[in-house]
Amino acid sequence: MDLSTIAYHKSEFKKLSDCTVNVATHALQYGTAVFGGVRGYYSKGMDNLLIFRIDRHFKRLHQSAKMMRMTPPLSEKEMANILIQVARFNNYRQNVYFRPFLYKAAEQLSPRFHDVKDEFSLYSLRLDDYLETNKGLSACVSSWRRIDDNIIPTRGKVSGGYANSGLAKSEAVENGYDEAIFLDLRGFVCEGSAENIFMVRDGVLVTPPVAASVLEGVTRRSVLELAKSEGIPVEERDIARAELYVADEVFFTGTGAQIAWVSSIDHRVIGTEVGPVTNKLRSRFLKCVLGEDSEFKQWVTPVYE
Ligand code: PMP
């Protein structure tokens, strides 16, 4: 992490190294923050940094805040504007990941949510691939179950809920896999540690419904819109674990992961090369993020005039 980059903290733009909080801060003690992850893609052709679906990301951040009884100090538009300004201050001309978040900023003991001051901060880092997107990933079904929406809301990005993701991710990697697949409390396929999941069976694209304790992923939504545009039939329905083993194709989606194909799950080979449906969606997605798709040009916001 480059601590000399300019970030936004306590209503000011300043060096990331100067963005500090007291150890007694509510969010640090209880994981009481909500966050987003937004990508900026550098287009060589346009010599511009393009922010992917900035409106959607800040809408979800506000929705996550609402679930957690937070009062955002800024509107969605104002937050989006701060992201653009941070990008400009850092004069980014490479792929970037932005991390906006709202956190319970009071230094106080009770884990309550009401009447605790909320602050907004945003930092960024250079990021190309988060997961390997060219080679197929090996995944395992986690021994950890996904937290349920009635335990910590899963359709929002709640910091404390990521203890669940961390347990699954470390278990997977330490056992030699690239990524974990969560089952929900009912035993149905849910999502990855930081990705939504899709499978293809007999030409149909299938993904668990948002009510199955999954995050309302911006990439998930985009892939569903792209599938519609490509005429690929889609089903949002529960997926059983063993159904994944016999899928024709499986892939993860996420701001970090983008579209990353899975080659094996629990030692069952899914594919030895990227599947045709995944490939079609992935190529189209990679055009979209660079502002090169005429149908979805509005998905990107240029940083520089
Ligand atoms: N699920 C979880 C648990 C995540 O952390 C993420 C990453 N934000 C996703 C899914 C994918 O969401 P998005 O496409 O909005 O990045």
Explain this structure to me?
- By secondary structure, the chain is an alpha+beta fold.
- The protein has 2 domains: 121 residues, Aminotransferase class 4, branched-chain amino acid transferase, N-terminal domain (D-amino Acid Aminotransferase, Chain A, domain 1), CATH 3.30.470; 153 residues, D-amino Acid Aminotransferase, subunit A, domain 2 (D-amino Acid Aminotransferase, Chain A, domain 2).
- Helix content is 26%, strand content 30%.
- Strands 8, 9, 10, 11, 12, 13, 14, 15 and 16 form a 9-stranded mixed sheet that branches. Strands 3, 4, 5, 6, 7 and 17 form a 6-stranded antiparallel sheet that branches.
- The longest helix is centred in the first third of the chain and has 15 residues.
- The mean pLDDT is 96.
- 4'-deoxy-4'-aminopyridoxal-5'-phosphate binds next to helix 5 and strand 14.
